[in-house]
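Dear Dr. K.,

Following up on our conversation at the group meeting, I've run the structure prediction for Cytoskeletal protein RodZ from Halalkalibacter krulwichiae. I'm pasting the input sequence below exactly as I used it, so you can double-check it against your construct before we proceed with anything downstream. Let me know if the numbering doesn't match what you have in your notebook.
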Amino acid sequence: MSELGQFLKEAREQKNISLDDLQQTTKIQKRYLVAIEEGRFDTLPGLFYARAFVKSYAEAVGLDPEPLFDQYKNELPNPQREAVTLPSRAERSKSVSPRKRTKKGSIFPALAAIAFIVVLVVGIWIFAQGNGASEGDAIAPDDSENLDAEFSDDVGNDEEASGATEESEPVEEVETVEEEEIEEEVEPEPEFTLNFIKSEGNTSFFDLENGRLSDVLIEFNGSSYVDIKNELGKTFYSGTPTKGDELTFDFEAEERVLFNFGASQNVDFYINGEQVDFPLDRTHQKIDIEILDGDSE
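The predicted structure tokens came back this morning:
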């Protein structure tokens, strides 16, 4: 038995606190409390939680944990915690809107094509006018050749009518392009909805529609026992985080997840950037969330 464990055990026994009572107060399993008293810190869920468990134990028996950490620092493990960079709450709460295809980028090519057609038509018309003038110079009508003069005038009129008809065609193309762009606008996808169903005992049931549990954030403003499992009993997390800690999870592949909070008043719970309010006014609460597929709506 370690000196730290013996000291904590004596303090507990002086206050007539049993291990069962201590387990109820700290939300730490009895076998972990025994391991702390015997100095077997390697049997705890993780070396990081050794200091957190000792702190909760000391506070429960009326001791200040900080002098204990200084006095018995050689017995306690001191793992190097990796810095985890998390997005701010403002960045997490930003909704991602689906991008819509704008008409501006596709109108420019249409306008360029129209301009090209107009220039081409004008060029043809000018060329036709030039040829008409040349023919007038080469064959000068006499007073006796009225028939040739009338024929020349008809040719000019036909070419002018043809040019007018060709100039009116691009207008119809502009209207067609605009109609196609309007039809291709993308409708926004529906946002996820978390529906409260009912509460039974200390368990509250929710349904999640139009989304998955891909972004789960748990923040702590005090110590709280946390246990997270799926519907098959698989445990994703079990421990006692302290004030200032944050836990993040991605349960994209799960259909149902049960969250167990030992001290819910010390917990801020977020699903996909939205805070989830605890329905019950009690310390120990469980949140059962079932994901509904689109076919089941």
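Two things stood out to me. The two ends are 58 Å apart (CA to CA). The helical segments are 3-14, 19-26, 30-38, 48-60, 65-71, 89-92, 104-138, 146-183.

Best regards,
J.T.
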